[in-house]
Amino acid sequence: MGLCLALAGAIALAFPVVLQPAGPGPIDRLALVTRHNVELTRLDPESPLSVGNGEFAFTVDVTGLQTFPEAYDQTIPLGTLSQWGWHTAPNPDAWSIDRFGFTPFESHGRAVGYADIPGERTPEINWLRANPHRLHLGRIGFRLTHADGSAAVPADLAGVRQTLDLWSGVITSRFRFDGEPVDVETVCHPSLDAVSVRVVSPLIATGRLAIEFRFPYGTGQTTAADWTKPAAHTTVLTQPGPGEARFARRLDGDAYHASARWSPVGTLTEAGPHTYVLEAARGTGSFGLTVAFTPAAVAEPLPAFEAASRAARGHWNRFWSTGGAIDLSGSADPRWRELERRIVLSQYLTAIQCAGRFPPQESGLTFNSWEGKFHLEMHWWHAAHFALWGRLPLLERSLGYYDAILPQAKATAARQGYAGARWPKMTSPTGDESPSSVGPFLVWQQPHPIFYAELAWRERRDRATLEKFREVVFDTAEFMASFPVWDAVAQRFVLGPPLNCAQETYPKDRTRNCAFELSYWAWGLQTAQAWRERLGLPRDARWDKVLRGLSAPVVSDGKYLFAETAPDTYSNPRWATDHPSVVAALGMLPGTSVDRDTMARTFDWIWTHWDWPTTWGWDYPMMAMTAARLGKPDLAVDALLMDTPKNVFRTNGHNHQRPGLTIYLPGNGALLYAVAMMAAGWDGAPEGPAPGFPRNGRWQVRREGLKRAP
């Protein structure tokens, strides 16, 4: 049995579900969600659980806190990360991307500078890539000690049972230590960047269970925490009253605050550099603790555990009771359970990891990937699905970022001799591009803001939405119209070189006219023209000139070449790797500039010949969307559940990719977009329910609250 199906079978055996008969009437959302509650009976370093609110997340081990972080550091580090918590290391040489030594690339008779890495990484390149980086705000764990005073190790825990109650957003952790029970509830406040816990155990009364706070220095490395530089940062503790503490933190030029409230009253002592231990009063059998992290000091009292727990439960009850839902429990195909599990857990994970003020990094608010920065071409896969699931505001939270960095994006375009705004690839809250041999040459993130704006328009259809996004839409289109170059010989506009396709396998200095990018360019410019018309403005003549003259994707032997400059697309095995992004032209996009029969032949070749282990987690939903639009619903489901290493979804719902990238949220978000489209349909979809699912009598798809895809 393959890895994915074996995992699905193991989960089904471990957590059998009691099903309500599927039929007419509203979906029993409580049953749908809770049959996929996550349960652990051992310390599993591949599946720690998290609580969060989109702006902040706290990842725990089986104790319900971050007690044994070393056991997870090589798999999924236990982070306390936020959207606002970033750190910049000292920059004595005043390095900046604006002063970077851009490498000139020949582009149709003129030199254009790019933030390339042509050879070895210099100190300047390393600093620019790693700064700013997302910061681990602080570790909160138990200090468990044996009767002889020695510290606990993971093997000392017995009777472990940990449950993530999705409907209420509560992690309940139970275990025994030295024969004594410990019960822990962990929640995240929905509107405060705060974690709250309640602990019940006889060990509290004897002083053998205490809470330890530790604060690290910053790093762009995976753990987002450097524990080896205690002299490089400061922590100042004040205690304004009984059961309260304030920690003022400073790391170089950055500062933030942590506040704690506990009950009943206990004793907080400094146990080492940036390390503090909270012990409850002797004789106490339980206590509650709330810890909040904020950019600035706060004077307001923190909510006690009971209040934080009520707020969390209310938030998650509303989340699951509103928006979209898909129930597959009436299906005869045995794969329904695993697909539904992935759908439910992906909704939870993207809500806590991908719904904040900034586009998320691939590993969200759990640990750092790519020095803690986010990738704007991945924003679509992370968050576009919110619009189809009736949760557009969760997408809109991050769209203001494009307004914020618009001046920087326009400066980048101007420096390269283009109009409008050129959006970066690997970036941070600053909007600065990061040096890379790949990222600065990608362009498929450029139309994304137009797509997001169109999703918002489809939902709201009002003047306010048009005005809200018009500047970003128009400046994006301005760049898109100025980037193609007129080929006087061939009498057409061409994209590149230099250019990196979304399939990052072609030489950037020689690549021209990637099929997907051409299709997205045409869709984006046409949609921007529609925005002008909705606003009562005339069509832009320059945009129309590019639209009329833009190159078409090249066809060879009845199939689309992935790039015009790769005539050996189907004969050279090296091209059948990485993202099969050509199919996104009819799948992610509605396919207005491609031929369906040609795409069908292209899809069939890819399905049979692609090197699937080299792909990434969003490639399988991308294939599923194309299969659905081509009228191949059986293959759409097969693509979503393809048995291949990077399509594994761990017990906690995270999409695993490889060592070092053990969670990959674009895979979760892409799955949600694809299944929403398959269930609710798309513009021009065949009539009938769930047009993207097989009509073989083995799939029963009940849906509520979903929107049609473009």
Report helical residue fraction.
25-40%
In the CATH hierarchy, what is the architecture of the largest domain at level 2?
A: Alpha/alpha barrel
CATH fold-level name of the largest domain? Glycosyltransferase
Would you tell me the overall average pLDDT?
Answer: 95
Tally of individual helices: 19
Q: Domain count, please report it.
A: 3
Structural class: alpha+beta
Strand segment count:
30
Biggest sheet layout: 9 strands, antiparallel
What is the terminal separation in angstroms?
37 Å
Instruction: Pick out the low-confidence regions.
Output: 1-21
Strand order of the largest sheet: 1-10-11-12-13-20-17-16-15
Keyphrases for this structure?
710 residues; 3 domains; nine-stranded antiparallel beta sheet; 29% helix; 30 strands; Beta-galactosidase, Chain A, domain 5; 19 helices; Glycosyltransferase; disordered N terminus; alpha+beta
Give the arrangement of secondary structure elements:
Layout (H helix, E strand, L loop, with lengths): L2 H12 L14 H6 L3 E3 L8 E4 L3 E5 L19 E3 L3 E2 L15 E5 L2 E5 L8 H8 L2 E2 L4 E6 L12 E9 L4 E8 L2 E9 L5 E7 L1 H4 L3 E6 L18 E6 L5 E8 L2 E10 L2 E7 L2 E6 L5 E9 L10 H17 L3 E3 L8 H18 L20 E2 L3 H5 L1 H4 L3 H5 L3 H5 L1 H10 L10 E2 L20 H13 L2 H20 L2 E3 L4 E3 L20 H20 L6 H9 L5 E2 L2 E2 L35 H14 L9 H11 L3 H8 L7 E2 L5 E2 L8 H16 L21 E3 L6
Antiparallel strand pairs: 1-10, 2-3, 3-4, 5-8, 6-7, 9-14, 10-11, 11-12, 12-13, 13-20, 14-19, 15-16, 16-17, 17-20, 18-19, 21-30, 22-23, 24-25, 26-27, 28-29
Helix pairs in contact: 6-19, 12-13, 13-14, 13-15, 17-18, 17-19
